[in-house]
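Objective 1b: paired records.
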Amino acid sequence: MTSKKGNIDRIISRTLAGDASNREEKELKDWILEEDEHYLEFKILQESALKGFKERKLLNTDSTFEKVWEKEAPQKKGVHYKIGFSVFKTVAVSAAGLALILLSVFSYRQLVINQEISRVNGQPVMIEKFSPMGQISKVFLPDGSLVWLNADSKLQYSSNFGEKTRTVSLTGEAYFEIKQDQTKPFLVKSGNVAITATGTSFNVNTFYNNSDIEIVLDEGELTIENLFSSLIPGMPLKTTLVPGEKAIYSLRESLFDVDDIQDSYDYTCWKDGVLSFRHADFETVVNSLERWYGVEFTWDGEPDTGWNYTGAFNNEYLESVLKSLGLDGEFSYEIKNNAVQLIFSDKQDF
């Protein structure tokens, strides 16, 4: 079942394109009237649409978007969990679509338009893209850069992104394909770390080891800076990555550790629907499965403290993954709705 927010996102896109039905128009109006924040959000989208239409007759910013879900049909009776995909992308806009927005939507808030426009125009607004559990999302940034957001991850940037600077903040995991611009370096901030690139591809994972930050370079060159270094005498200020290297930033020690890697795809394959583990302990496996499939785990008994799992699953259902893990981890499982219970061998009835 589609969430209300996801449905509104699609209705907004259809409205901007002039393809919304009468029922969708009414639903959008009701949503705008619910809260002032809804009105502000839609106003930003509408202003971007106007700008894009005037300049190119095409929305070329990520302020207006359409989510597309790729649903997997169950192969057998019962509930099956599989990673989903969504896209935040540009959409074409017709003059009729823009007129529809102006005449039928904003007539409901005519008394507050001038106040809200001045507040939005006077101050840049933070835009947030969130990829929920069980879903991978693509985000097209206004400068032409592309970002894959892993499940349970968030990307934030200012509405004036690209005008003078290109800065984003990341929570979770993302793969970046940066459009080259030597005059405006691309900056990714995550916790105490700032990553600078001009035109390159790289992966940032703040889920690593459940606390540290892992950066893997695919192409180009990266400069990674410890934002706390200036506060502690003698602490390394920054480090540089070249292809074939990864950096681990320890939040506990505020230090970088740079290592060589054999294949960067082992760290970035998640964007293609491949769930990969490298010497993962039990906690890492469970946390990854919860994010990947949008479920919650509990367990009876105690897992082996020596869990050290390495393997990959290519677009597989949760049941298949659990069966494979159960052979090594010696557990059975039960799935009810979005709850998964693991039963370890010392608790199983034979």
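Objective 1b, second protein:
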Amino acid sequence: MDPFTHGIIGLGIGALSGQPLSPYNPVYGAAVLGAVSPDLDIVAMLNGDLAYLRNHRGISHSLVGLLLLSIGIAGIFFLDFGGNPLIYFLWAFAGAISHSLLDSLNSYGTQLWWPFSKKRYYGNLLMFFDPFLIFLFLPVFFTYRKPQKVAFLALGLMVLYLFLRLLLRINVERYIRKKFNLSQGNTRLAVLPALNGLITWDFFIEAPREIILGTLNSFGLGIRKKLSLKKNESTPLIIKALKTIPGKFFSQFTFFYHINSWKEKNKHYVKLTDLRFQNKTDFFYKLTMIFNEQFHLEDAYFYRMGEVLPVDIFFRKEIFNEHLLEKQSYHPCS
């Protein structure tokens, strides 16, 4: 979600305290700062855009990260206002947990259980920006003297809204299963919010031989766009590619991707395409890996909306290790 939405929901959480809304009230300050603090992972951009993509919604969005951020926020307000730091911690943590939970409800996901698991959790209910959530919490500003009742109402309506979106998604899933005569055993179906509308959904069907992509409306339930991608067999090259550092990163980055491989001028190419996000012309995220005849990784390119992102030391370490391995195979140590 965007920072403004997180901030205004944090304000609504602070309003649950029943205290008047004030910029000098540490309860509101802790809740709002907690609600926006997980996005401090933007500092990873100092090491490049690819470093940011690797770290975004990782440590800072995990329960461990939220606890550490909340402790830091509590310390700041305790030094400035005095009082009970536990109170500041609880309000900061309430704001912070709202951030991670909301981010977990879209299709980018969060690593909630880091460092115990690097798996991303996706709710596939919300877009990156949902104006309805802002509309629900805006009245808190206008009832600043007694905002508690309005905040409870806004939170209740938000839960109801999320539940209705869940029902809509389930209805779309049922329609697609019936439309394509899908069985549970040999196909995988994913339905997620499209980027261009509150009631529009994208879907992916992974069948044994193809991946079908489409877009449809929640109420019309007519498929407006459909694309079929042929699935490649799981060759030794593809297996090797998915075990490389870039391959592992990409497969953890997205829950639904397409793999393509080909040979050109004594080089083997493997391309991974993230199928979750696309505009009118292309998909947002891609990874291309280049291997030599011995299937040693020689280079890797990460693409974001057609732009090549500089490959950092995280990827280069894998390439360096492959080159070292190749040299050792030609010059074995005695």
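Residues 3-164 form one domain. The chain has eleven helices and nine strands.
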